[in-house]
Structures are given as structure tokens and as C-alpha cells.
Amino acid sequence: MATTGRQCYRLFAVQPVLVLAAVFVAVAGDAGVGVDGFITWDDLSIPAGASQRSTWDDTAGGGKRSAGGGVAQTTTIVVSPDGTGHSRTVQGAVDMVPDGNKRRVKILIRPGLYREKVTVPITKPLVSLIGMGTGRTVITWHARASDVDASGHQVGTFYSASVAVEADYFCASHITFENSAPAAPPGAVGQQAVALRLSGDKTMLYRCRILGTQDTLFDNIGRHYLFNCDIQGSIDFIFGNARSLYQGCTLHAVATSYGAIAASQRSSPSEESGFSFVGCRLTGSGMLYLGRAWGKYSRVVYSYCDLSGIVVPQGWSDWGDQSRTKSVLFGEYSCKGAGASTKQRVPWSRKLTYEEAQPFIGRSFINGEQWLRL
């Protein structure tokens, strides 16, 4: 999970992760997120007719001249591998979005297997990637932390991402994000392979699949809402220092021995980061820790989740540093399933009361009332 890669899965400390400085774009009043700056279901839906016809014209800043002489806001870019859209590649479509964009631009990605690395840069907020089914629209790459770039340096975990999102107000729906690098066994060096990195603020994913093994989803920084998504991995397959709510998601383990779901990097009590899983379902193989204390103040909570018997009875790991047991917040509330018994949990984890769980259960955990209108 460090930029140079962790040395092995065993519980050792890592180097600090490179993070991008957050740049917040003023969007209140912009057309892309409504007049008051909220993400709505429209931002995640296919525009009427867009799957059959092209609607993008950048000759007038993305607008087409209407019959009355005004500029119509036509803000859909179509990606199609057969050349019938505006771009054959997803990155090519992202490149068409103007820097400093102030209105919602939907990139409709027609069915296909897109073998490419994609970056949505910090200068291009308000972008939606909309697929046509997670089994039909797939963005995949195969980079690992130990891969060497053109300058001869290892790319590290941070830059191994198949898709990297650095912009604010990003949305995605009905897409598979995949890192297809070979599965990393426990103890392997430099095998971290990120499918998706989220480094922007106010991000929503709906009905997406995020597939990999070690370090699948780099939930780096910002506030994020993942609703009805499938996330697959083996070792720390959700990790980072974001503040994120996972609601109704399927967490599917492909571990061959021991693994872990979440590794929160929170390193001070003043940081508001952490991961909250609400109404999620754990499936798959191996023996999984619910979370590991990557940061001294790591914070992970499971509420109303269905936990299969692949959860190790102890539930949680201190990352090999007993001092962290005094400062982490690892909690469970009203979970069910063969892996939900707390009788053998480590004594420093918490079985939360309703009052203690409340701050983590709703969208208020990610200040959703300020940017989500669903």
C-alpha cells in the first residue's frame, strides 16, 4: 500500500503513501451538479438517446447551436471501440473534457473490454463514467507496484491503478474497474495491483465492480459513497485514508490463505477519515480480518452486515504494533452470519451500542447532506 510497495503481507509498518493535495473547485450554481451543488441520480444515468447517437460538439465549448441561435448544453461524450462514437478509448474521452470544467459531462462507454490505464485529472471535475452493464463495460490494466516506468523507477502502489480519479464530483455507474495482474500470494514483494484509486472529494459509485487481489481499491483521500457495488480482493483490498460509506456492497474475498478486507490509514485523532460498511455482504474464500490498523488511529465500522464464516474469530489485526490497540476504533453493530460472532474478538475491538453506531450508519458520516440528493 506504500508507493514503493509493502515488503510483505505479514504485519509490518509501511512507508507513508504519496497523496495528492486536494483542490476544491467551486461548483455551487453550476449546471453539472444542480443549482445547489448536489449529485443526483441523473448524474449516474444514461442520457436519453445517447447510446444510439452522438451528442458532443466541442466547437462551442461543448455546446451545439440550437435552431434559435442559442447554445444547447450537449454534454455527453460517447466511447465506442468500433469508432462510431467520439473516442475509441476512455482516456481519449476524458481528454476531451476541458480543464476547469464547470458542468456535468457524461462519458457514455459502450460495451467492450477497454485495455488501458485511465486518469481523470484534478483539473477535470464533474465527470461521470457511465457503462452499459458491469459485465459488458470493462476497463482493465495489469500494472503492479514493482513494474518499472520509462524512467527506470518502480511505479509503486499509487501509480499501479488501472483507473485513477483525482477530480472532485466524480460519478461512475455500471462499469467494471479491473486490475488483471496475476494474484499476489501472501508475502510477495511489489505485487500490489490497484484497480481503482479515488483521490478526489465528493465521489459516488453505483453498481460498479472493482476487481483485483492485493490492494484492489485505493480509497485514498476525500469523501466517497459506494452504493450497491461489488469489490473483490484478498489482501487489504480496500485501503487508504478517505472517509467513505459502503452501503449494500458485496465484499468478495479471493484469498488462498489469510487476508484482510480494510486497512484504514488514519494517523491522528483530528482526521475524519475511516471506512463504514452498512448492509454489506461478505463472501468468498480464505480467512479474513475485518480490518487492519494501517494507521495508529485506524477507524473501520461494520453495521447490519452479513459476514460469512471466512472471518477469523479474532476479527481484527493491530498490524503488529500493540500500541495501536489503544487508539484504533474497530467496531461492529448488529451484524449477522457465521462470521459475526464477537465472542472471540480481540479485546480492543468494540461491540457498539446503537448510539455509538449512529454516526457511522447514515450518509451524514460523509456529510452526504451537503452533496448528495438521491
From TrEMBL:
Residues 77-368 form the Pectinesterase catalytic domain. It is an enzyme of class 3 (hydrolase). Pathway: Glycan metabolism; pectin degradation; 2-dehydro-3-deoxy-D-gluconate from pectin: step 1/5. Its EC number is 3.1.1.11. Pfam families: Pectinesterase. It is found in: Secreted, Cell wall. The keyword Hydrolase applies. The keyword Magnesium does not apply. Coiled coil: none annotated. The active site is at D236. Keywords: Aspartyl esterase, Cell wall, Hydrolase, Secreted, Signal. Residues 1-28 form the signal peptide. InterPro entries: Pectinesterase_Asp_AS (IPR033131), Pectinesterase_cat (IPR000070). It catalyses: [(1->4)-alpha-D-galacturonosyl methyl ester](n) + n H2O = [(1->4)-alpha-D-galacturonosyl](n) + n methanol + n H(+). It comes from the Eukaryota. GO terms for molecular function: pectinesterase activity. GO terms for biological process: cell wall modification; pectin catabolic process. Belongs to the pectinesterase family. This is Pectinesterase. It comes from Zizania palustris (Northern wild rice).
